[in-house]
Amino acid sequence: MTCSGHIPNVVLMTFLYWGVRLTWAASSLPFITLTVQEPGQDHPHYFLIRQGVYGLNSPLLEVRGQVLAPQPLRGTLNLQGCDPETHFQVPPDLKQWIALLQRGNCTFKEKISRAAFHHAIAAVIYNSKPEMINMVHEGTGKIVAVMIPESEGNHILSYLEKNASVQMTISNKTSY
């Protein structure tokens, strides 16, 4: 597999299959912005995640919502969201929220489907390694799925651990 070129927001991938070269648009690159309101602070912080990739089966929709990580399960951290008992503490008045999940221990389809089951509008999976990969997650429906680098996921998680409100916008537009 090689990266054969770049069209704005689309990575073209080329595979050699039985001597035939196949090329297609593998994934769009999301534009991700964060607004973080820390407790006791008057003004929010604004961040842009410059690296990320939509899952191969993700709709390329714009979504906005509060970021939530899975709640501890049986007294231990549950950042990967693989356990069938995974749950999120979603405030009753919150209409749109985005699941933040760490890569590992189960398939992308399982993670994304679990977030969708709990009514998340998007699943953002941060890699457990510095590099990013294309996620395959057929059959997960209309939930938006994005992978971001480990460092970005840990950065967001650090704010959630301080009980900050983290709002995320994911878009396939390159600017507003």
Structure description:
- Keywords: Signal.
- InterPro entries: PA_dom_sf, PA_domain.
- This is PA domain-containing protein.
- The protein is mostly beta strands.
- The chain has a single domain (28-171), classed as Glucose Oxidase, domain 1 (3-Layer(bba) Sandwich).
- The chain has two helices and eleven strands.
- The protein has an eight-stranded mixed β-sheet with strand order 5-4-11-7-8-9-10-6, with helices on both faces. It has a three-stranded antiparallel β-sheet with strand order 1-2-3, with no helix packed on it.
List the defining traits of the structure above.
176 residues, mainly beta, Glucose Oxidase, domain 1, eight-stranded mixed beta sheet, 12% helix, PA_domain
Write the layout of secondary structure elements.
Blueprint: E1 2-7, E2 10-17, E3 20-28, E4 31-37, E5 45-49, E6 53-54, E7 63-68, E8 97-102, H1 108-117, E9 122-126, E10 144-148, H2 150-161, E11 165-171
Parallel strand pairs: 7-8, 8-9, 9-10
Antiparallel strand pairs: 1-2, 2-3, 4-5, 4-11, 6-10, 7-11
Fraction of residues in helices? 10-25%
Query: What CATH architecture do you see?
Result: 3-Layer(bba) Sandwich
Mean pLDDT over all positions:
83
Which structural class do you get from the secondary structure elements? Answer: mainly beta
Uncertain stretches of 5 or more adjacent residues: 1-27
Reading off the top of the CATH hierarchy, the class is best stated as: Alpha Beta
Through-space gap between termini: 33 Å
According to CATH, the fold-level topology is Glucose Oxidase, domain 1
**Could you give a short account of the major beta sheet?**
8 strands, mixed
What share of residues are in beta strands? 35-45%
How many helices? 2
**Count of DSSP E strands?**
11
Q: Which quaternary structure do these chains form?
A: single chain
What value does the Rg take, in angstroms? 17 Å
* Sequence of secondary-structure elements: EEEEEEEEHEEHE
- What spatial order of strands do you see in the largest sheet? 5-4-11-7-8-9-10-6
Instruction: Name the shape in a single word.
Output: globular
Total number of domains:
1
Keywords: Signal
Protein name: PA domain-containing protein
Pfam families: PA
Organism: Monodelphis domestica (Gray short-tailed opossum)
